[in-house]
Specification:
By secondary structure, the chain is an alpha/beta fold. The protein has a single domain, classed as Rossmann fold, CATH 3.40.50.2300. It is 37% helix and 21% strand. A five-stranded parallel beta sheet has the order 2-1-3-4-5. Strand 3, helix 3 and strand 4 form a beta-alpha-beta unit. The mean pLDDT is 89.
Length: 121
């Protein structure tokens, strides 16, 4: 069984490169271009994602708002945030969930390495 990951990133080239790297490592990756699409995918998956990787600052619906709106729909998914800004890992509304953050700019392989570490934990 492959591990299912949702990647939510508004920058198309970055999202594509990270998704490609994750797929090369054997992960099943769904992509979303903003928080609204990400929220729709989370609801449709009904807790089926092992990991949600998302940008924090996005148009339409930002990553934190998307995660808070998803609530229990995230199931047991771990969360990996990506941001050009420092991110407080004890974010209100996401307590009790494994949340890690990476500061952009970031190498695609580093995102995949962090994803693998989170999924193995």
């Amino acid at each position: 069984m492959t591990t299912k990951i949702l990647l939510v990133e508004d920058e198309d080239p970055l999202r594509g490169a990270i998704a490609k790297t994750l797929r090369e490592r054997g992960y099943d990756v769904d992509e979303a271009c903003d928080g609204e699409e990400g929220l729709e995918r989370i609801k449709a998956a009904k807790g089926g994602y092992a990991l949600v990787i998302c940008d924090v600052a996005m148009p339409v619906l930002d990553g934190l708002a998307m995660l808070k709106a998803a609530g229990k729909g995230l199931g047991a998914a771990r969360v990996l945030l990506m941001s050009g800004y420092e991110v407080d890992q004890s974010i209100a509304g996401l307590q009790g969930r494994t949340v890690h953050a990476l500061k952009k700019p970031i190498a695609h392989a580093q995102v995949a390495d962090e994803a693998g570490a989170l999924l193995a934990a």
